[in-house]
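Handout, section 4.2: multi-component inputs.
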Amino acid sequence: MNSLDFPETLDRVLLKDIYDDDAEYAYLMFGLFLTEIVPQIYTLRQVAEQQNWPLLRQIAHKIKPTFGMVGVPQMEQFFDKLEAETQLQSARAIINSIDEKLAQVLPVVQTTYAHLKNLQDEN
Amino acid sequence: MKINCLIVDDESMARQSLERLCTKRPELTVMHVCTNGNEALQIVESRTVDLMFLDVEMPGLTGLELLDLLPYSMPVVLTTSKTEYAFAAFQYQVIDYLKKPITLPRFNQAVDKVVDTIKAAPATPPPTNDIYVRTDGRFVRLAFDDILYVENTGDYVKIRMNSHTHVVHTTMKNLEEKLDPRRFLRVHRTFIVNLSRIIDIEENTLVIADKVIPISRANKAELMNRINIL
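Output:
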């Protein structure tokens, strides 16, 4: 990756629209995603098992648009479904899909964050 | 043109994203960032907000419920991760409706609309002879003629009337903008006076009722120009 070129696996067009050439802004948002949003994703299963549907909906709603901020807007569909879910079995299946996809995209997000951090350190 | 913005969102990443986007437009100044609707309502009731970026879905008071409670109109840009609020946005006549994640071109487009709207508004507010201030949970009307002076005390201002003093949570700047500039003048960093209530003026002080008020060197000339001297 050179300067603010994002990996091909991320939605580069969307990321360009969000950050333009502001690497510091991207660094800030990728960092927030990793430190604040990812831990919330891992709470979804527990909340679903408690069948606390209003809380599940609230958390899913907050998480949903943050995936776009790190170039993975295709994850939003799972959270759209989860927001409307009130059945434990279906919720478990959606959360399984989220975990599976997250395991694929998280390393890319982490690598991108490391690259952005290097850019900050260089400046 | 300076546009004082209020950001209201319960999600940290969204709040910080909007703060960052606002720094890209020199017209915008972020005056406050709120995490819920109730906090935002308190800010709107105590200060003048020129533009609000408002999340629709928040726990407690939602964005749309907050719009129903606003004590005065202001340009509002709704922010949400759902498109289904577009009709509500139309009904509430908000300036724009931004879907999260917010891209820079769409943000700029929304701010351009806000700037156009503010520019198209009348340059000066209609003449008025009074001001309403929120005190003890109600809005009280204060006639300009009855205000003797205003004193800044940090986060609050004291509005001294003939028989009563109102303590209001606002800034001197906000209050000064609401007062009639033909009648009132800031004579010191901490005092705005009603020119028609001055009893006498000495070198660096003036007297209104029983109060001796300092006059700053920077404001003395303007004061002397504004009074009718024989």
